[in-house]
TrEMBL record:
Protein name per its UniProtKB record: Uncharacterized protein
Native organism: marine sediment metagenome
Amino acid sequence: MRLSHLKVLSEKELSKIHQASLRVLSEIGVVIHSEKSLTASKRPWCQGGYR
C-alpha cells in the first residue's frame, strides 16, 4: 500500500500491525522468543548489512 501523504497511526493500529507481523513470521517458521530478540534482529549486523 502506498500513501500519498503521511498518516499518524494509533497505538491500537500499531499493535495490530505488530501482531500481524509476528503471525506471518510464525507462519514462515521464524520464532521470536522475546521482544528483546525482535529488537536485536533489526540491527544492521543481524541482517547482513554490517561488515
